Amino acid sequence: MFDLARLWLPLLVLSLIWSLLSGSAENDLDVLARTSADEPANILLLTAHPDDECMFFAPTILALLERTDARRYPKLHSLCLSVGNAEGLGEVRRHELARSLDVLGIEDGRRWVVDRPDLQDNFTVEWHPQVISDVLRPYVLEHDIDIILTFDGHGVSSHPNHISLPKGAAHLLNTLPLASTKPRPRLFSLITVPLHEKYLGPIAPVSTKLALSIARLWRWHPRGAKNADAEAATVGIATETRVPVAVSGWEGYARALRAMMQHRSQLVWFRWLYVSFSRYMWVNEWVEYVEVE
Ligand SMILES: *[C@@H]1O[C@H](CO)[C@@H](O)[C@H](O)[C@H]1NC(C)=O
């Protein structure tokens, strides 16, 4: 006879994993989605190359665009500072980016691509902060941007073009004249995780959701509140109070994958490996950028 009693544990584990992968999750995402006056924010995603948006930022884009609050969404804009012309495919990639943003849901009219001689896709060149700042300024002012989202000082993949983005954006914020009516925009960086955590594939969203639940339980427990940060550290969540986190479920992952498929010129074998195993297809964690001199 079929022994059901022996199956309950594996079945329980399987259904737990399934339920952990199926839904999306988030933590403190309002930090990115709302202004200090608690209005829906105007957000600008600053990227270096076509395909950054879906390879690294999809969980955040999808989570932000999912939010409705009294029928008002945060407005999400995308500015890509190059057409990715390292292999002479710039014009093809410009169109691929448009199709990818269609899939992710960033509207026409809120997305721009820049192609300048001093901001070219090149693995050996850091872009100058002053140039980035000058290019960025009109977009930030004209669209009343409250929040800038970009890479951190490690750029996820250590690409020098990525690494130059937070420096350039910080340069802009430091030089913007302070308006009396509105606080300065805030700059947030996508946290680069250590290499051994980068390629865990679907394990990343499962462990992140577990960690978020544990941290929440711990915080909710009266005696645990004080130790919440220490606990969060041991389970791998960055410990600053209010770390915005976006975790995609299956649907979000599939959407990111569909966006990536629009970048047909880029789909060489190692990118298939990337989309199969990268944490950034599932999980984004954010920290406010602080410039280190
Ligand atoms: C990248 O920059 C280096 C140094 O400026 C230059 O020698 C090289 O030709 C550039 N590569 C491309 C693809 O533009």
From TrEMBL:
<comment type="similarity">
    <text>Belongs to the PIGL family.</text>
</comment>
<keyword id="KW-0732">Signal</keyword>
<dbReference type="InterPro" id="IPR024078">
    <property type="entry name" value="LmbE-like_dom_sf"/>
</dbReference>
<dbReference type="GO" id="GO:0000225">
    <property type="term" value="F:N-acetylglucosaminylphosphatidylinositol deacetylase activity"/>
</dbReference>
<dbReference type="GO" id="GO:0006506">
    <property type="term" value="P:GPI anchor biosynthetic process"/>
</dbReference>
<dbReference type="GO" id="GO:0005783">
    <property type="term" value="C:endoplasmic reticulum"/>
</dbReference>
<feature type="signal peptide">
    <location>
        <begin position="1"/>
        <end position="23"/>
    </location>
</feature>
<dbReference type="GO" id="GO:0016020">
    <property type="term" value="C:membrane"/>
</dbReference>
<dbReference type="InterPro" id="IPR003737">
    <property type="entry name" value="GlcNAc_PI_deacetylase-related"/>
</dbReference>
<protein>
    <recommendedName>
        <fullName>N-acetylglucosaminylphosphatidylinositol deacetylase</fullName>
        <ecNumber>3.5.1.89</ecNumber>
    </recommendedName>
</protein>
<dbReference type="Pfam" id="PF02585">
    <property type="entry name" value="PIG-L"/>
</dbReference>
